[in-house]
Amino acid sequence: MNDSKFPKLINYQALKQQLEDEADSAENPSATDIDRENDALSFDQDRTDKKTGLQGSRLRSYAFAVLTRKEYSKAELIEKLALYAESRDEVITLVDELAAQHYQSDQRVAEIMLSSQKRKGKGPNRIKMALKTKKIDSGLIAEELKETDWVLQAYELKVRKYGTEVTKDPKIKAKQIRFLMYRGFEMDAIIKAISRKEDD
């Protein structure tokens, strides 16, 4: 094969020299390279320092936008707004103001939760626990909790899961008790519910 027709595609000597030069400059960076790195670092630092959050009317508008989509407890709303706000104190003041004007209401959130949890077959203990996680005082719906027929609620749930038959088998009885306890019902309501006959 004639070398003139097939010139070398890669100049290995030149490539080797280039790699050695790059290795040297990585081990001994020039002043210019160091300056460039420092400039990049300071630029990144400036960007994080200048990161601004919402405040004033923009924060207020965002709070309204959040509340139009979903009801939030006071504690939840503070946490949500604080993620984007310039000042946590401003958020707390704003949320207090929104609560005073009834745009935000823990009472409404508690009532919505009570209704939703009852539909899902949850008992009073689970409902109180759900309210606690949202930092809502269960006293806000104390009257509704008291007025609810928890025996009927537990009975309907038991019927959906196990049917109307009142079992005498202690193992099945224990299973039903555990199921209703897990759902948040009190023992008194559970015993009445699993002993209740269809025509009672």
Automatic annotation (TrEMBL):
Comp. bias regions, Basic and acidic residues: 33-52
Gene3D superfamilies: Winged helix-like DNA-binding domain superfamily/Winged helix DNA-binding domain (1.10.10.10)
The UniProt record lists the keyword Cytoplasm: yes
Entry superkingdom: Bacteria
Domain RecX third three-helical residues, every copy: 153-194
Keyword presence, NADP: no
One Gene Ontology cellular component: cytoplasm
Cross-referenced Pfam families: RecX_HTH2 (PF02631), RecX_HTH3 (PF21981)
Listed GO biological process terms: regulation of DNA repair
Location within or outside the cell: Cytoplasm
Region (Disordered): 20-52
Start and end residues of each RecX second three-helical domain: 105-143
Main location: cytoplasm
InterPro entries according to UniProt: RecX_HTH_2nd, RecX_HTH_3rd, Regulatory_RecX, WH-like_DNA-bd_sf
UniProtKB keywords: Cytoplasm
Similarity comment: family membership: Belongs to the RecX family.
Function summary: Modulates RecA activity.
UniProt protein name: Regulatory protein RecX
Name of encoding gene: recX
